[in-house]
Structure formats: structure tokens, C-alpha cells
Design goal:
The structure holds 3 protein chains of 3 kinds. By secondary structure, chain B is an all-alpha fold. Chain B is 64% helix and 0% strand. Chain B has helices at 2-29, 59-82, 89-111. The chains are: A mainly alpha, B mainly alpha, C mainly alpha.
Chain lengths: 404, 118, 172
């Protein structure tokens, strides 16, 4: 067992041996190792977000035909550090009459609700926090804690707009969790386990995005909605309304919501690559787990780019459009897809991978075509009637008398 | 297995402690100049009118309720999905029946207009 | 005292204290938040009992759905943030007497059960969830409760929608 074949175990043995040499018992050694591992991992993720904010701003700039930050450092890399320094030194303006404990707890819960997900994401074959046997459900449950943070922010701010914004945001998030959780059942179905590392192992033969592309699409759409990103960013709408539930926050407390936002996008990209794109699988990934980090990051990069691409290209949805999309399109689609995938997967005899893949692709194709046909047929009812403009009297030069 | 949960517990604790430490540190670095005008609630620049606690629509409650029903449904479906590879077609049809019953509930809610955003 | 016992006592103390605060908080919204803490404590206790699936289900369903539902329901009332005064009424000593009596009775019954000091024979089972899933659709085991649960959920959904759509016209 060298460093290259099993890095975490080697490091753990080194530090554990040193601690045991200092006289610690077995239990305490495990505790300290876990604490150190969790601390370093969480810190690394938070620092990566700093880099990502720069990436996003550059990309958005390019989508909008401008350069993005380019003053501080080569290609503007130090822009985020400057912004961080600025926001660290802003005053915390706390309005009168707020409930101190929920008001201060809310940004912490918002960040914790995203950062805690990283404990179960497998970056390499043996490089992961904890291979929890209920990893997939853990991801959704931690998202629920983030929603709690938003509700706390909304009503503890003692501001009508914040309260309304908070409740609208949570109503949306809660609605979009239904198709998210249903679409997450499908990788669990195929791999027979809820543990994330087991799901990655089970994708050795074929990636799940090939077996269930519609489910992957539903996962992507609902995750973007859960993140509160464009085109679903009605509740924060940076450029339009008063900022919604975080209107009474300033300084780093406000900054924490945006840290949570960017980190959530990053997390969605890695979750997608783990659950649907085969995670750390790749040439020699089992033998040298460090390669797994590159594979999973490489796959996640495409998803991250797509999410920012969507942000830069699509206009915002209205709230009733979002609610209808969720309850009338995504939820029935996800449930029907689950039923049909379960039945078809069982009907195809064991072992014939190509037949299974084709059958499942056919199911997905039928569902996609069926959904778009239904949408075309029934969504036309809500179209606004385009009224031809009446001809209005307009002054024309030849009608003016010849005094000019 | 308990080691996994210990790690998770520590990770959740650290992921709450890190932002808390950052916010606390920024609190030490930032100026503190309280001012009665600054501390009033923000209402697009005008004075607040009326109490700050508004009555809100029952619609939010309905979305949370439908979410709860489907959440509990998926809780039943996850263990079924984990055991999927070892089930016969009969077991799968039963779960499909389960999903169909709840899908008809969604249809009822749709037809009654409970899912409209007023 | 093993570490597990110390952690259990700590978590149990937090859970019980939060539960007491739920019923004695002066503002309803604070009571809802103490409830969230109590539910989180229960989830940690589930995790310590090697019932990881149920710990996560507790967080997902109770904290993620039911607490939000309760907070929304509280916001539907008018007195969500009013300080309604101390929550004890004049007869509180009678209630305390009843509580102590019930606790003493339960303690006597449990301690006199011969199995109270025996350790459970069930250890961490790696296949627990798979077996649970199989039992859910096994005709000899739990398939009827499984289907009845879906009908019950359907009834809850229809009932709640019926009640709320009735009142849609006239808001209080």
C-alpha cells in the first residue's frame, strides 16, 4: 500500500501512528483523525469556491460579450480576493427588533446546508469523506437544512418583504424537491445501493446517463431550481427586486448566502458527475485514486459550464410558470419514468446490456416525445391572443399643408 | 459504521463552525457605527407602514403539504429501490401500484386547482 | 462510561430540554424552532443506534417537511410573534404531580422487566436496508401495510386539499 494506491490510508496511518505515539487511545485517535480530515476537506471546498466565483464571472462576461474581471492579477484572478477583503470589512447593520439568534443562525445554516454534502461525495476510489450507506438520501436531507436557513432569514428579519420573499423561496424549493428525490431513486434502483461510492462502482459497465437520460435531465433542472439560479432565480432576482429574504443582511452574513449559492452550483456539478456520469471511473482510476479526482472534476466541469451557460442565456421564469412546470410537468414525468424504468428493466432478461440500454433509451425517448406532444397540445390553451394593432392616425409629411 | 456517522457529525459541526468563525472574524474587523436611521427596516427607502407580520396565503401551506405526502412516498420507495435487483416482477408491480395511487392523488390536486399559484 | 454513553446523555439532555422549551416558549415561532432542535436530537439518537436510514429519514421528513409545514401553519395565524405571556397556569402543580406519577410508574414497570439490562442481540447489519426493501413487497410480510400506507397518504392529501379549497374563497 503505497501513497499512490491508497493516499488516505497512508496519511491516516502516519498521523495516527504519531498520535498513538503521544499516548492517545484508539478512540481518541479516530476522533482526532476524523476531525482533521473533515476540517481540511471543508476548508478546501470553501477555498475552491473563491476560485469558482472568478471562473463564473469570467464565463458570464464572455457570454455577455465582455471581458469580465481583468484588472487585478493575470486575467483578474485576484478579483475575488479583493471582493472578499471588502466584504469582510463591511459593517453588520442589524435592524431594530430582529430575533438575534435565528437572524445570525440563518447564514450559517445556509452554508452548512451545502458544505455538509461534500462529506459523501467520492472524489476517488478511496478518497472520500464517509461512504455512508444512505448517501443519496443524506444529500437531500442536508438540502432541507438549507431551506430551514432561508425560512429563518425571512421571518427573523422583521421586514414584510423579507418574510414574503423567504416564504416564496421556500415554497419553490420545497416544490422542486419532489421531482429531485424521485429522479434520485433511479440510480439507486440500478445500482442496488444508496451509497455514493457503490453507485459509482456500479457504473463500471455503463454510465447511468445513458440508461436514464430523462432522469438526469430532471435532476439537472430541479437542482438548478433548488440552487435558485437563473432561469429560476425569481426569489433573488439580483437585478430587479429588493433582494428577497436576505434584504436585511449586510457584510459577510450577506456574503455567506452568495458563498452558499456558488458552492451549491459546484456541488450540483459534482453530484451529477458522480451519480450519472460515472464519477471517478476512468483509465487506471482504481489503481491510482488520485486520478479519480481529475476524472470527476473533468466531468463536473462540463456540467458546471452548462449551468453557467444557462444562467447567461435564459430569461427568468415567473413564479406561476415555475410552479406549473414543477407540479404539472416534472413530477408526473419523474414518477412515470420511474415506473416505466422499473418495469422495463425487469422485463429485459439478465445480462444483455445492449438490449437493456436500447430498451431503456426507447422508454426515455417515448416519454420525452410524449411530454413535448402533450405540452404542445395543452399549453396552447394559455397562449395570449395577439391583437393586431389598430391603425392609428399618424401625421405624414405629405398631409401637412404646404406652409412649411 | 459508527465511524462513518462520527465523521458525518464532525463534518456537519465543522461546516457550521467555519462560517460562524468567518462571520465572527468579520465582525471584529468591521466598523460599528449604529445609527437610528440605519437600523430601521428596509422598505425601498420609504418609512415602514403597518405591522411587520403579514398574513400570507394558504397556498404555501398546500405546497408544503403535497411535498410532505410525496416525500413520505419516496421514503418508502428508497428501500424498495435498494432491494430492486432481488425482487420479482410481482414486487415491482406492487411498488408501481403504490406510485399510481399517489399519482392519482396528484391528479386530484391538479384538477381541484390546488396547485395553481393564485 | 464509554464515549457513546456520554454522547447519548448529552444528546438526550438537549432533546429533552428542547422539548420542554417547545411547550413553554412564549412565542409560537420560537416553539417551532425548539421543535426543530428536539427532532434533530432524535435523529442523532437514531444514528447512534445504527439505524442510519431512520436518522436520515427523520431529518428529511421531520425537519425538512414537517417543521416547514408547522412554521407555515404558524404563520397562518395572527399571533405568530406575539409574546403571549408565561405558559404556566394556576394548576401547574397538579400537572407536575401527574407527570411525576406517570414517570415513576413507567420506571417501575421498565426496571422490573428482566430484559432491561441485557444488550440487544442485533448488531449493525449491512443488509438491513435491502432486507427492509424486500420485506416491504413480500406478500408474506409487509405488502399490505405498504399499500394501505399509500391509500392513507392519498386520503391525507385529498382531505387537506378538500378542506383548504373550501376556504379559498373567504380568507379569515
Amino acid at each position: 500500500m503505497s501513497f499512490w494506491t491508497d493516499p488516505m490510508a497512508v496519511i491516516a496511518n502516519l498521523i495516527g501512528g504519531w498520535l498513538a505515539g503521544l499516548g492517545m487511545t484508539e478512540g481518541w485517535v479516530t476522533f482526532v483523525l476524523s476531525f482533521l480530515g473533515a476540517g481540511v476537506y471543508a476548508l478546501l471546498v470553501m477555498l475552491t469556491v473563491v476560485l469558482l466565483i472568478w471562473v463564473e464571472r469570467k464565463l458570464l462576461g464572455r457570454f455577455q460579450d465582455r471581458l469580465g474581471p481583468n484588472r487585478l492579477g493575470p486575467w483578474g484572478i485576484f478579483q475575488t480576493i479583493a471582493d472578499m477583503l471588502k466584504i469582510f470589512t463591511k459593517e453588520y447593520i442589524t435592524p431594530n427588533g430582529v430575533d438575534k439568534v435565528p437572524y445570525n443562525l440563518a447564514p450559517i445554516l445556509a452554508v452548512a446546508g451545502v458544505l455538509s454534502v461534500w462529506a459523501v461525495i467520492p472524489l476517488g476510489a478511496t478518497i472520500l469523506g464517509a461512504n455512508l450507506n444512505v448517501g443519496v438520501l443524506y444529500v437531500v436531507a442536508i438540502g432541507a437544512i438549507g431551506e430551514l436557513g432561508i425560512i429563518l432569514a425571512g421571518w427573523s428579519s422583521r421586514n414584510k418583504f423579507a418574510t414574503l420573499g423567504g416564504f416564496r423561496a421556500v415554497a419553490l424549493l420545497v416544490s422542486y424537491e419532489v421531482p429531485l428525490v424521485v429522479s434520485l431513486i433511479i440510480p439507486v434502483l440500478f445500482s442496488g445501493s444508496m451509497g455514493m461510492n457503490n453507485i459509482v462502482h456500479a457504473q463500471k459497465d455503463i454510465w447511468y446517463i445513458v440508461l436514464a437520460p430523462v432522469a438526469a435531465l430532471i435532476f439537472l433542472i430541479t437542482s438548478i431550481a433548488e440552487n435558485g439560479r437563473a432561469p429560476f432565480d425569481l426569489t433573488e432576482a439580483d437585478s430587479e427586486i429588493v433582494a428577497g429574504f436576505n434584504v436585511e443582511y449586510s457584510g459577510l452574513k450577506f456574503g455567506m448566502y452568495y458563498v452558499a449559492d456558488f458552492m451549491h452550483t459546484f456541488t450540483i456539478a459534482f453530484l451529477f458527475s458522480t451519480l450519472w456520469l460515472g464519477g471517478w471511473l476512468g483509465p487506471w482510476a482504481e489503481k491510482y485514486p488520485m486520478l479519480g479526482i481529475f476524472y470527476t472534476a473533468f466531468k463536473a466541469w462540463f456540467i458546471y459550464f452548462t449551468i453557467i451557460w444557462l444562467r447567461g442565456s435564459l430569461p427568468r421564469f415567473r413564479i406561476d410558470q415555475m410552479i406549473n412546470l414543477n407540479w404539472k410537468v416534472l413530477t408526473p414525468l419523474a414518477l412515470v419514468l420511474l415506473m416505466m424504468t422499473a418495469i422495463v428493466n425487469r422485463l429485459v432478461p439478465e445480462g444483455m446490456l445492449v438490449v437493456r440500454t436500447l430498451a431503456l433509451l426507447a422508454v426515455n425517448g417515448i416519454l420525452l416525445v410524449g411530454t413535448s406532444w402533450l405540452l404542445n397540445k395543452f399549453a396552447g390553451r394559455n397562449k395570449r391572443v395577439v391583437v393586431a394593432p389598430e391603425p392609428r392616425p399618424v401625421a405624414r409629411p405629405e398631409q401637412i399643408s404646404s406652409e412649411s | 459504521m459508527l465511524n462513518d456517522w462520527l465523521y458525518i457529525g464532525l463534518f456537519v459541526f465543522i461546516s457550521m463552525a467555519l462560517p460562524a468563525i468567518a462571520i465572527f472574524a468579520a465582525g471584529l474587523l468591521s466598523p460599528k457605527k449604529p445609527n437610528p436611521i440605519k437600523s430601521t427596516s428596509y422598505e425601498c427607502g420609504i418609512e415602514t407602514v403597518g405591522p411587520s407580520w403579514v398574513q400570507f396565503k394558504a397556498q404555501y401551506y398546500i405546497y408544503a403539504l403535497v411535498f410532505l405526502v410525496f416525500d413520505v412516498e419516496t421514503i418508502f420507495l428508497f428501500p424498495w429501490a435498494v432491494a430492486y435487483n432481488q425482487l420479482t416482477l410481482f414486487g415491482i408491480i406492487e411498488a408501481v401500484l403504490f406510485i399510481l395511487i399517489l399519482l392519482s392523488g396528484l391528479l386530484y390536486a391538479w384538477k381541484k386547482g390546488a396547485l395553481e399559484w393564485m | 462510561m464509554t464515549a457513546l454513553q456520554i454522547i447519548f446523555l448529552f444528546i438526550a439532555a438537549i432533546t429533552l430540554a428542547s422539548a420542554v422549551m417547545v411547550v413553554s416558549a412564549r412565542r409560537m415561532m420560537h416553539a417551532a424552532l425548539w421543535l426543530v432542535l428536539a427532532l434533530a436530537g432524535v435523529a442523532v439518537i437514531f444514528a447512534m443506534l445504527d439505524a442510519g436510514f431512520f436518522a436520515i429519514v427523520q431529518v428529511l421528513v421531520y425537519i425538512g417537511a414537517i417543521s416547514i409545514l408547522i412554521i407555515f401553519a404558524i404563520m397562518l395565524t395572527r399571533k405568530a410573534m406575539e409574546d403571549v405571556g408565561p405558559q404556566l397556569n394556576r394548576g401547574w402543580w397538579l400537572a407536575a404531580l401527574a407527570v411525576v406519577g406517570v414517570f415513576a410508574g413507567l420506571a417501575v414497570v421498565i426496571v422490573s422487566w428482566p430484559g432491561v439490562m441485557a444488550t440487544a442481540g442485533v448488531g449493525p447489519d449491512a443488509d438491513a436496508i435491502v432486507n427492509f426493501g424486500k420485506d416491504l413487497v413480500d406478500p408474506d410480510k409487509y405488502v399490505m401495510p405498504f399499500e394501505v400506507a399509500s391509500v392513507m397518504l392519498l386520503a391525507a392529501l385529498i382531505g387537506a386539499i378538500y378542506v383548504s379549497v373550501e376556504h379559498k374563497g373567504g380568507q379569515p
